[in-house]
Specification:
mainly alpha, Rossmann fold
C-alpha cells in the first residue's frame, strides 16, 4: 500500500492509482484482498507535502495498535521523493529518517561534496535513529531499493511467507477483547 502526500497525487490520480476500482489492477493479491474488503484504493493521498506527519501517525498506529514490530524502524515501509523540487523535501525526508524510515531521494543529492556527511546520512545514522537515506535517480532502481528494504523488514518480522488470511468480522473482533 502506498500512502502519499504532495504533488505526486496528480500523477497517481491520472494513472488510476487513487481509484478504488481501477487501482486494484496495480495491486498484488494480498493488497487487493485488503483493499477490496475495506473499499480503498492501493494508493491513498493524505494531503499536501506538509501533511506528511499523517503518514508517520499511521505508521505509529500500525506498531501500537496493529502490533507489527516494536518501532517504526521495524516496519516494512520506505519513503521516496523521486523528483523533489525544494529544500522543504529534505527537511520532510529527514523527519522520516529520524523517525526510523528508509528514505530514497532522486534527481540530485546535496551532500555528495562531503564524503563524511554522506556516509553518515546513508549508513551510520541508521544505528542512531533506525532510518537512513539513499539516493537513486533511476526510478526502476529506486523501486528496487525500496522493495529490497521492504522484503528484508518483512523477513525479519516473519511476514514474508504466504499463509491463510482470515478477515475478521465484527463478532470475531469483539471476541478478541
Amino acid at each position: 500500500m502506498v500512502l502519499q502526500t504532495g504533488c505526486s497525487a496528480i500523477a497517481c490520480a491520472k494513472a488510476g492509482f487513487l481509484d478504488s476500482v481501477k487501482g486494484l489492477n496495480y495491486a498484488g493479491k494480498g493488497l487487493r484482498e485488503v483493499c477490496e474488503a475495506v473499499g480503498i484504493p492501493p494508493v491513498i493521498h493524505m494531503g499536501s507535502c506538509v501533511d506528511n506527519s499523517r503518514i508517520l501517525m499511521a505508521a505509529t498506529c500500525v506498531v501500537k495498535e496493529g502490533g507489527l514490530g516494536d518501532d517504526i524502524s521495524e516496519l516494512p515501509a520506505a519513503g521516496a521523493a523521486p523528483e523533489w523540487m525544494s529544500e522543504k523535501a529534505l527537511s520532510i525526508g529527514q523527519y522520516f529518517v529520524s523517525s526510523g524510515v528508509f528514505v530514497v531521494f532522486g534527481v540530485t543529492w546535496p551532500t555528495f561534496g562531503s564524503k563524511n556527511l554522506t556516509k553518515y546520512l546513508f549508513e551510520d545514522i541508521e544505528k542512531e535513529v533506525g532510518g537512513k537515506w539513499a539516493f537513486e535517480p533511476d526510478p526502476d532502481k529506486m523501486a528496487d531499493l525500496m522493495l529490497k528494504h521492504i522484503d528484508e523488514k518483512r523477513r525479519k518480522l516473519g511476514i514474508d511467507k504466504a499463509r491463510e488470511r482470515v478477515l475478521y468480522d465484527m463478532a470475531m473482533r469483539r471476541e478478541l477483547e
